[in-house]
C-alpha cells in the first residue's frame, strides 16, 4: 500500500525509514513499529510531504514532540510524519505587531526565548510544556489558567485531498484539551498567534517562574511519561482534579509491568523502562475503575492512542 508513496519520497529526497521503531520518538517510549516514518529535512519539505500524503489518502498522521501520544506494541500500518527536529523557521511578527506567525513544527521552549527577545507576551503559559506549537494547538495545551484557545487566531493547514488553505480559530472547535485536529485529520503548517505587548525581562521572568513551579511539582522530565494522563473532571461536577482523585484512592506508586503511577504527581503514569502499551492500558483501567468505584467519577483519557491501522483515538 505504501510502496508508491515511498518511491515518491525517494525521488524527492525526503528522509524516511520503513518499519521504523516509533518509541524513541515519543516521550512515553512506548510502541512498536510504523510502516513509514518520515523525517522531513525542512519545513518546506514537510509541507510537500503532508500535502502528498493527504492527496494519496493513505493512513497517516503527523506528530510533533510526541509528548502526548502512545502507540500500540505491534506494527502500525500507517505513515507517520515527524514535524519537529528540522532547522527551525524564524517566527514572523506581523505588521502592526498584534500577531505572530510561527511554524507548527517549532518547539515551545525556543519559541518562548524568541518571544522574550521580541517583546511577545501572553504565551508564557507554554513554559515547560514539551513538544511543538502544532501539537499544542491540536490538543489545546494549557497551564496556569490559559490554553492555546486563548491565543490562537488562525492557521494554515493541509486539508482533505491535500489542499493547503487557511482556517480561523473557530474551525479548531476548541474544547478543554481538545480540538478537531487532536483526533481528526488535517495537518497544521503554520499558526497565527495573538501577541500581547510586553517587556523582554518581564516575559523571561514569567517563563522562569513557570519553569521553577513545574520543577517543584512535577515528576522529573527525565522520566518517560506523557504528562497528565487523564483530563480533570469538569469543574461543574464539583470534583477535585484527576490527580487528587487518584491520590485519594491510594494509587500513588501502583504498578502494571513497567508502568507506574508517579509518586510525585498521581496523574502522571510513568514508564520505568521497557514498558509496553499493554502495561499502560492495564494501569489505565486499574486507575479508572478504582476512581469510579470510590469517587463516582469516570476519568477520561487525555493522552492520545493510535490504533494498528493508524487512527488516533
Ligand atoms: C512532562 C510533561 C509535562 C506536560 N505538561 C503539560 C501541561 O502542562 N499542559 C498540557 O496541556 N500538556 C502537557 N503535557 C502534554 C504535552 O506535552 C502537550 O499536550 C503538548 O502540547 C503536545 O505537543 P506535541 O508536539 O508533543 O504533540 P504530539 O504528542 O506529537 O501530538 C499530539 C497531537 O497533536 C497532533 N499534532 C502534532 N503536530 C501536529 C501538526 N503539525 N498538525 C496537526 N496535528 C498535529 C498529533 O497528531 C496528535 O494528535 C505534558 C507532557 C509531559 C511529558
Task: Describe it.
The radius of gyration is 19 Å and the shape is globular. Helix 3 (108-117) packs antiparallel against helix 6 (200-217). It has eight helices and 18 strands. Helices cover 28% and strands 23% of the residues. A five-stranded antiparallel sheet has the order 6-7-13-11-12. A four-stranded mixed sheet has the order 1-2-5-3. The chain is α+β, with helices and mostly antiparallel strands. It has three domains: 3-82, Uridine Diphospho-n-acetylenolpyruvylglucosamine Reductase, domain 2 (2-Layer Sandwich); 92-216, Uridine Diphospho-n-acetylenolpyruvylglucosamine Reductase, domain 3; 220-305, UDP-N-acetylenolpyruvoylglucosamine reductase, C-terminal domain (Uridine Diphospho-n-acetylenolpyruvylglucosamine Reductase, domain 1), CATH 3.90.78. The structure holds flavin-adenine dinucleotide. Flavin-adenine dinucleotide is lined by residues 27, 61-69, 83, 104, 129-132, 134-136, 138-139, 141-143, 177, 181-182, 187-188, 218, 221, 225-227, 304, 312.
Search tags:
Uridine Diphospho-n-acetylenolpyruvylglucosamine Reductase, domain 1, 5-stranded antiparallel β-sheet, Uridine Diphospho-n-acetylenolpyruvylglucosamine Reductase, domain 2, binds flavin-adenine dinucleotide, alpha+beta, 313 residues, Uridine Diphospho-n-acetylenolpyruvylglucosamine Reductase, domain 3, 8 helices
> In total, how many beta strands?
18
Strand content: 15-25%
Derived structural class = alpha+beta
The biggest beta sheet is recorded as: 5 strands, antiparallel
CATH topology of the largest domain: Uridine Diphospho-n-acetylenolpyruvylglucosamine Reductase, domain 3
Helix content estimate? 25-40%
- Report the C-alpha radius of gyration, rounded: 19 Å
For the record, the CATH class of the largest domain is Alpha Beta
Number of domains: 3
Number of helices: 8
Identify the overall geometry: globular
The sequence of SSEs as H and E is: HEEHEEEEEHEHEEEEHEEHHEEEHE
Major β-sheet strand ordering: 6-7-13-11-12
Give the terminus-to-terminus CA distance: 22 Å
Q: What would you say the CATH architecture of the largest domain is? A: 2-Layer Sandwich
Amino acid at each position: 500500500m505504501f510502496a508508491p508513496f515511498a518511491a515518491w519520497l525517494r525521488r524527492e529526497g525526503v528522509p524516511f525509514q520503513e518499519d521504523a521503531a516509533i518509541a524513541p520518538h515519543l516521550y512515553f517510549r512506548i510502541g512498536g513499529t510504523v510502516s513509514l516514518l518520515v523525517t522531513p529535512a525542512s519545513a518546506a519539505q514537510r509541507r510537500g510531504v503532508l500535502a502528498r500524503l493527504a492527496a494519496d489518502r493513505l493512513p497517516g498522521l503527523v506528530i510533533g514532540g510526541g509528548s502526548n501520544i502512545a502507540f500500540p506494541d505491534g506494527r502500525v500500518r500507517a505513515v507517520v510524519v515527524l514535524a519537529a527536529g528540522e532547522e527551525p523557521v524564524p517566527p514572523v511578527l506581523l505588521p502592526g505587531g498584534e500577531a505572530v506567525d510561527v511554524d507548527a513544527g517549532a518547539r515551545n521552549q525556543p519559541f518562548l526565548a524568541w518571544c522574550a527577545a521580541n517583546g511577545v507576551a501572553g504565551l508564557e503559559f507554554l513554559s515547560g510544556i514539551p513538544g511543538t506549537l502544532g501539537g499544542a494547538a491540536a490538543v489545546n495545551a494549557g497551564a496556569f489558567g490559559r490554553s492555546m484557545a486563548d491565543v490562537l487566531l488562525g492557521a494554515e493547514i493541509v486539508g482533505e485531498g491535500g489542499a493547503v488553505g487557511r482556517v480561523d480559530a473557530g474551525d479548531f472547535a476548541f474544547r478543554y484539551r481538545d480540538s478537531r485536529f487532536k483526533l481528526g485529520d488535517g495537518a497544521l503548517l503554520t499558526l497565527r498567534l495573538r501577541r500581547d505587548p510586553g517587556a523582554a525581562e518581564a516575559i523571561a521572568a514569567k517563563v522562569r517562574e513557570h519553569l521553577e513551579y513545574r520543577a517543584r511539582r512535577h515528576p522529573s522530565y527525565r522520566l518517560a511519561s506523557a504528562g497528565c494522563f487523564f483530563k480533570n473532571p469538569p469543574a461543574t461536577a464539583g470534583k477535585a482534579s484527576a490527580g487528587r482523585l487518584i491520590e485519594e484512592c491510594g494509587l500513588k506508586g501502583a504498578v502494571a509491568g513497567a508502568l507506574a503511577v508517579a509518586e510525585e504527581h498521581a496523574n502522571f503514569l510513568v514508564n520505568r523502562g521497557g514498558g509496553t502499551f499493554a502495561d499502560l492500558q492495564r494501569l489505565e483501567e486499574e486507575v479508572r475503575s478504582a476512581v469510579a468505584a470510590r469517587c463516582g467519577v469516570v476519568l477520561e483519557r487525555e493522552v492520545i492512542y493510535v490504533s494498528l491501522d493508524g487512527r488516533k483515538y
